[in-house]
Amino acid sequence: MIAYIKGKMVKIQEDSIVIDVNGIGYEIICANPFSFQSFMNKEAIVYTYHYVREDSQILYGFKNEDEKYLFIKLISVSGIGPKGALGILGSVDIPAFVSAIEQEDDKFLTTFPGVGKKTARQIILDLKGKLNLSFSIEIDQEQDSEEAKVDYQTINEVQEVLKSLGYSDKEIRLILPELKKEPNLNVDEAVRKALSLLMKG
């Protein structure tokens, strides 16, 4: 198992990054490759999960071990594969996600891409009680959880607005890290901020 890769970030693509290690380029599939933008042409450590099947071998990459651990747990859920797990990780707030599982809040879980009510219930069934200790999360902080839900839902709505305006997933993902630094914005304010960031880019 390849636990992590340390090398020079030489390429960022729509769905992956490339790390050069002693002249060998490792292509690593990520939920949000552009979150690694600050490491371009610099040395970086990317935590990895080596996914092996009869017909393929794929490296999935993460910025930290919490993201990697959540990915591993998600692909253990019946009905969720690597693509679905990456879809969740693309915009996940881990404390809010774990709190939703512990509180059996399937409505919140269905706000994630590709998660319907059946899958949300399966996530709760398979993962409840298995994540909160791993992430040292206080699940009784309902107010914090509610705030995190609002943040995620706002970001989700902003992405839909930007897509309707003709922006690509690649362009949108590039500005998400900066947009998430201002969690108290409403949808209209967040859209204006996003458009400003896109025009700067």
Automatic annotation (TrEMBL):
Q: Does the keyword DNA-binding apply?
A: yes
Q: What is its main location?
A: cytoplasm
Stretches assigned to the Helix-hairpin-helix DNA-binding motif class domain: 72-91, 107-126
The keyword Nucleotide-binding is annotated on this UniProt entry: yes
Protein origin, superkingdom:
Bacteria
Show the segment(s) annotated as Domain III: 150-201
MF annotations from Gene Ontology: helicase activity
CDD domains membership: UBA_RuvA_C
> Which SUPFAM superfamilies does the record match to this protein?
DNA helicase RuvA subunit, C-terminal domain, Nucleic acid-binding proteins, RuvA domain 2-like
What keywords tag this UniProt record? ATP-binding, Cytoplasm, DNA damage, DNA recombination, DNA repair, DNA-binding, Helicase, Hydrolase, Nucleotide-binding
Cellular localization per UniProt: Cytoplasm
- Record Pfam families: HHH_5, RuvA_C, RuvA_N
Let me see what the UniProt entry remarks about domains.
Answer: Has three domains with a flexible linker between the domains II and III and assumes an 'L' shape. Domain III is highly mobile and contacts RuvB.
Q: How does it assemble?
A: Homotetramer. Forms an RuvA(8)-RuvB(12)-Holliday junction (HJ) complex. HJ DNA is sandwiched between 2 RuvA tetramers; dsDNA enters through RuvA and exits via RuvB. An RuvB hexamer assembles on each DNA strand where it exits the tetramer. Each RuvB hexamer is contacted by two RuvA subunits (via domain III) on 2 adjacent RuvB subunits; this complex drives branch migration. In the full resolvosome a probable DNA-RuvA(4)-RuvB(12)-RuvC(2) complex forms which resolves the HJ.
Q: What family classification does the UniProt entry report for this protein?
A: Belongs to the RuvA family.
Task: Give the function comment from the record.
Answer: The RuvA-RuvB-RuvC complex processes Holliday junction (HJ) DNA during genetic recombination and DNA repair, while the RuvA-RuvB complex plays an important role in the rescue of blocked DNA replication forks via replication fork reversal (RFR). RuvA specifically binds to HJ cruciform DNA, conferring on it an open structure. The RuvB hexamer acts as an ATP-dependent pump, pulling dsDNA into and through the RuvAB complex. HJ branch migration allows RuvC to scan DNA until it finds its consensus sequence, where it cleaves and resolves the cruciform DNA.
Report what the protein is called. Answer: Holliday junction branch migration complex subunit RuvA
